[in-house]
Amino acid sequence: xxxxxxxxxxxxxxxxxxxxxxxxxxxxxxxxxxxxxxxxxxxxxxxxxxxxxxxxxxxxxxxxxxxxxxxxxxxxxxxxxxxxxxxxxxxxxxxxxxxxxxxxxxxxxxxxxxxxxxxxxxxxxxxxxxxxxxxxxxxxxxxxxxxxxxxxxxxxxxxxxxxxxxxxxxxxxxxxxxxxxxxxxxxxxxxxxxxxxxxxxxxxxxxxxxxxxxxxxxxxxxxxxxxxxxxxxxxxxxxxxxxxxxxxxxxxxxxxxxxxxxxxxxxxxxxxxxxxxxxxxxxxxxxxx
Length: 289
Description:
This protein has a six-stranded mixed β-sheet, with no helix packed on it. It is built from eleven helices and six strands. The chain is 47% helix and 10% strand. It is α/β, with parallel strands linked by helices and 289 residues long. The protein is globular, with a radius of gyration of 23 Å.
């Protein structure tokens, strides 16, 4: 029995250490410092599933479905944990640019039901910052959306006005990729670095399906991403998979450097959060202004 208890205590200590490491990792990687976990969701998914339409409608308490969308099931949670769980998801949405539910309606719900929640000033601040970011796009430089053009390969990028004749820095990303979006928080440092070199332009390529078009456009605005943007067509996706990933599955984020002819100069650049390492690579390959 003593040996068994020792093993259990050791396992508990290991789990605590893993949790601390994971928390510290997210705090380091995410400059805003928020650490999320979404407890209880699976339980309420099953509990909500057995409700009939009348019970589900009653659960909304007069608020419309857009207020909660998929997370209406969390209305089954008691008041003691509901504001915490919903608010953590709300914070995640505002930081990641995702679109789980209507932000303004959710803020009204939380303010009505839980006016003293510590999360309300947090989400208000994040919403203000999001609006500032979206307004900056018109003040600085609007993103250039290329999806109307036929781009079936990386080489096709070299024929696009504004890109033609330049080196091309490519950010491969997805609207569902949290590490991709964490890297967007280093975009100002990255932009400063890119402007140091002659004839270098930035292109963001989303590997998302066409069904994610609205979310893709929204996240470009919420993260204030200038430069050229396109969602990869099926042909471009295959070209990237073949040339960059050697026909293995695509993993993002990934960063590429092409020359003005579409040749690959570097197929796996350091991430923007390692800006010094990225500069070392650029210094060896590019000409400074």
